[in-house]
Amino acid sequence: MEQILRLTPYFSHTIWGGSRLRSEFGYAEPGDDIGECWGISAHPSGESTVTGGPYDGCRLSELWRDHRELFGNLPGDRFPLLVKLIDAKDDLSIQVHPDDAYAAKYENGSLGKTECWYVLDCPEGATLVAGHNARTREELRGMIREGRWTQLIREVPVHKGDFIQIDPGTVHAIKGGILLLETQQSSDITYRLYDYDRLQNGKPRELHLDKSIDVISVPAKPVEESVVSFADAPENRLIRLQECRYYKVSLARVNGTLTAPLNNPFTNFSVVSGTGSVNGLPVRKGDHLILTHALTHLTLEGHFEAILSNP
Ligand code: ZN
Hints:
- It contains six helices and 24 strands.
- By secondary structure, the protein is mainly β.
- The protein folds into two domains: about 5-230, Jelly Rolls (Sandwich); about 240-310, Jelly Rolls.
- Strands 1, 6, 19, 20, 21, 22, 23 and 24 form an eight-stranded antiparallel beta sheet that branches. Strands 2-3-7-14-9-12-18 form a seven-stranded antiparallel beta sheet. A three-stranded antiparallel beta sheet has the order 11-10-13.
- The longest helix is centred in the middle third of the chain and has 9 residues, at about 135-145.
- Zinc ion binds near residues 95 and 115.
């Protein structure tokens, strides 16, 4: 069985995107509005395809359908996760995602969206939005209806190496200058509360105030639980960043050699800096791999950082 799949990403162009995914990650994607690189995705809005080996050219959804053994015969009607790089040249809209139950009912059976971020780079003094200050749903409704955004949203300072878990119902926004890796459920359902009155092709993007008010958790979880720093995480061992019902996410900071047993159905693997090798396969910044069920022992060599995830 194939042990490692190498993927070619899908790119999404957005009003807030930039060009760092090309200039810093080496992707041959034109344009100065590249917002997202969907490195590991089987979502119908943008799929990764396999490059090289016996599955060359296959879409990830096809492999999930026809070669489930690669994924440890994990049950499920769709590949469950999506891994993205996000370059926010400008602020993203203030938004919130539904949970599985709400999405299944109101969004044609879609999954809800739990997501998490690992900050790869940001300017000095950077902040992002995580949570809000309303104490009751009434107060929340009033602040949204009256557009009292500065009062409503909670901005938190962030630094390179921070990790942020965004549960469904959490008001959030990535702000300009931040480059991050997002691991999320394979869902594309976003409710936009506020878009800074920006125009796209001459028109404001759609807002979804009623659905937002429906799904926002009140009160928000405490600010000190939102952001955790892994800037000083040790090298050459797998560091667990998060474990929730949808995913387990780990950081590998390789300086020399890292070895570890793997007993996941499969593992998403994205290289976010440096160069090296994964079980002998050369990798560099910007590479996205799936370590299939057949790979039971991991040997990482070189000088690089990678984010791993599995269901
Ligand atoms: Zn989001």
